[in-house]
Every structure is written in structure tokens, then in C-alpha cells.
Design a protein that fits this description.
By secondary structure, the chain is an alpha+beta fold. It has helices spanning 8-26, 83-92, 105-113, 151-158, 183-207; strands spanning 36-40, 46-49, 63-66, 98-102, 118-122, 139-145, 169-171, 175-180. The protein has one domain: L-fuculose-1-phosphate Aldolase, CATH 3.40.225. The structure holds 5-S-methyl-1-O-phosphono-5-thio-D-ribulose and zinc ion (ZN). Pfam families: Aldolase_II (PF00596).
């Protein structure tokens, strides 16, 4: 049993994480136990998925509270192994209310095969999913970082680039991080980005 203040706000956050996990699973973006999801409540509490569970079958008890430093409020809980990649986003921008991480086929393959340090997405109508984009006639960069099992170290590599990120970022051979002001926005951005990555992958396959 978690040492948790289960009020209406926590209930909403937990339900949103459970439903987003189901949605990501339906789309094939969180195979096995991959992926992690979090949201920040209006009072500043942070809810995140417990480590190691299947994100398509989450229950309320798989959503735990962490401090802004990423420490489980109940020491008996084990937060996502990638918690620091979530908390660094919340610390970076107070407007961020939800963070999603998935391991889709397109994110995994494209991030492994791109030799430069970013994937450029240009000319797509769906780029307008991202705030501030009003036309397809634009080009946005999705930064790439090398995978690292030391998440604290990976977070220090990601940190200086956050200020310029418009879409999210990819970790090579691993997956994508996307965020938004709330869970609905984060999911829409993830869905838009996954669509664009699937298009890029299909174009490469067509050329091959
Ligand atoms: C299926 S292995 C995936 C993990 O290593 C990790 O990358 C991941 O996304 C899930 O870790 P978790 O600790 O459950 O949040
Ligand atoms: Zn992962």
C-alpha cells in the first residue's frame, strides 16, 4: 500500500496515465515492459509509472508519487528506471504537465540508422500538431542522443539541448521522449511524431 494522498486530483492523474498507457500499447509503442509515463499535478506533485510493469495493463497501484528530484515518496516503491529524464523536463519548464516515453519500431530503427545528430522532418502537414507551426512548409529537427544505461549521465547530455527542442528527442536504438502541457497534449504530440517517423521509415524503405 502506497503512502499516498489519494484525492480527486491524484485520481485524475492516475487515470490519465493508465489510459495513455493503454493507448500507447494499442499503437504498438510500448512492447513488453518498455515505456514510461508521468504527469505533474496542479499542486506540483509528480505521478509516474512504477518500474518494470507492462504499460498497457497499468492499474492505479502502478502509478506512484515521486519528488521533483525523482525520489519515490514511499521508499518501498521503485520508480521508472528513466525517472530522471522526466524530472529534468519538469524542472526545465514549469509549463510541462505530462511526459511520455515509448519504443516504437520507427523510433528505434530511424534513431539507429541516422548518421547525423538529428532527424529533420520537413514538408509534412502533421508538423502543425506542434505549437507555433502554421504551415507544412517548414523543417523541424528531432535531436538524437546515444543510449546510455546510466540515466543520470544521459540526462546531463540531454540538458543543454532542451531549450531548442520543438518536437521531443530520440535515444538511439531505444525510443522517443515527448511532452506537453497536459496528458492530452503530450499524447497528441506523440501521435503526431510517431506518424511522422512512420512516414520517414516508409519513405526509406521505398527507396531501398
Ligand atoms: C523492455 S526494456 C525497457 C527499459 O529498459 C526502459 O527503457 C523502459 O522504457 C522501461 O523502464 P521502466 O523502468 O519500466 O520505466
Ligand atoms: Zn525506455
Amino acid at each position: 500500500m502506497q503512502n499516498l494522498k489519494v484525492d480527486e486530483s491524484w485520481g485524475n492523474a492516475s487515470r490519465q496515465i493508465v489510459q495513455a498507457g493503454q493507448r500507447m500499447d494499442q499503437r504498438g509503442w510500448v512492447p513488453a515492459t518498455a515505456g514510461n509515463l508521468s504527469c505533474r499535478l496542479p499542486d506540483g506533485r509528480i505521478a509516474i509509472t512504477r518500474s518494470g510493469g507492462h504499460k498497457g495493463f497499468l492499474t492505479d497501484s502502478d502509478v506512484i508519487e515521486i519528488t521533483p528530484d525523482g525520489v519515490p515518496v514511499d521508499p518501498a516503491n521503485r520508480a521508472s528506471a528513466e525517472t530522471l529524464l522526466h524530472t529534468q523536463l519538469y524542472a526545465h519548464d514549469p509549463a510541462i504537465g505530462a511526459v511520455l516515453h515509448g519504443h516504437s519500431v520507427a523510433a528505434t530503427i530511424l534513431s539507429m540508422d541516422e548518421p547525423s545528430d538529428a532527424i529533420t522532418l520537413a514538408g509534412y502537414e502533421v508538423l502543425k500538431v506542434f505549437e507555433g507551426q502554421t504551415t507544412h512548409d517548414t523543417s523541424l529537427e528531432l535531436p538524437l542522443f546515444h543510449n546510455d544505461q546510466d540515466i543520470a549521465r544521459l540526462a546531463t547530455v540531454v540538458a543543454p539541448k532542451l531549450v531548442d527542442m520543438r518536437l521531443g528527442y530520440l535515444i538511439r536504438g531505444h525510443g522517443v521522449y515527448v511532452w506537453g502541457k497536459d496528458m492530452f497534449t503530450a499524447l497528441a504530440r506523440l501521435e503526431g511524431l510517431e506518424f511522422l517517423l512512420a512516414c520517414e521509415l516508409a519513405r526509406l524503405q521505398k527507396k531501398a
